[in-house]
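Obj: model holo form, ligand = calcium ion.
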Amino acid sequence: MVTKLHKSMKKIGFTLGCALILGNLTVFLAAKNVFANSINGNFGLELYYRDSAFQCGSDPTQADIKVNVYDKSNNLLTTMSKGDKHIIYSFDSADDLKFTYNVYNLSCISNASLRPELGSMLLDSNDSIPNIEGFSKQSSITDMLVGLNSYEELYLVELGTSNISSSAYDLQDVVLVVDNNPSPSD
Ligand SMILES: [Ca+2]
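Output (holo structure tokens):
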């Protein structure tokens, strides 16, 4: 009787122990999932929608472009307007994200149209910035970055044409700056 009870207690203890270990493992895995690995001790990234320049032909009226930020599973993380900064804790690179663009305020594109990305470039801080003039006297990528002290990555977007020899292919229709050292006080 005593032995039987003892065995039952041991079994319960074993089951409880397994449940606790599994519980901890689940918490651990969940934590790993939420916080991306970081080499600098800070988690996540800050997106900064630095600038945009997009217009209809020679009409200098500028588009208002909203940037929708998704993860690779198509979960919408945020929608940004020019000048916005947004910290995302779950990812460490723009490479982990997807973007779509809604265009407003242009005569040649109906309001709120979803505009496809026809070209893009993700640069590290060590990469040289493409030397491309802005279309129809728009600021170039380099102009748009004047005064910016540092960044981890730059995400450059072309929404006008996929023809890389066209003067409209200026990769500054949307310029996103990625900081991998985000601080909530920034
Ligand atoms: Ca442009």
